[in-house]
Amino acid sequence: MADALETEALWEDFHRVVNMTSAELAAWLRVRDAEERSEPLPDEAGSATGRHVLAILQKRRTDLTDDDVRVMYKVVDTVDDLVDMDDEPEPERPDDTGRRHRLMTLGHDPLKP
């Protein structure tokens, strides 16, 4: 696993970009996967990455695994690529709905202050 300083920096970056609480993310993942005919079990709602982000939010830093660290890097890089963190929150344009939903699946709501 990464050294302590690197893990500390990653933990801070992860919580900087993931601005949804675990409850908000869990609810979003359930809503996102809800369909007319079927709805997955709450533990199976959302993408694998979204579920992993939710699990990380419910952990202490000392309990992180190598897989958690890998996902945290992926989330930080993806959100940083898709969002100008200095300009958040920004008004949503009609063509941004898909982008917002992708970001929310990773735990980042661009409309949240």
Low-confidence stretches: none
Helix share bin: 40-55%
Distance between the termini: 33 Å
Quick one: how many beta strands? 0
Per DSSP, the total helix count is: 5
Mean pLDDT: 82
Strand content: under 5%
Give the biggest sheet: none
Short description:
55% of the residues lie in helices and 0% in strands.
Task: Provide structural commentary.
The chain contains 5 helices and no strands. Helix 3 (about 50-55) crosses helix 4. The longest helix is centred in the middle third of the chain and has 17 residues, at about 65-80. The radius of gyration is 14 Å and the shape is globular. The chain has about 110 residues and is mainly α. It has helices at about 5-15, 20-35, 50-55, 65-80, 95-105. The mean pLDDT is about 80.
List the helices and strands and how they pair.
Elements: H1 4-17, H2 22-33, H3 48-57, H4 66-82, H5 97-105
Features:
113 residues; mainly alpha; 5 helices; globular
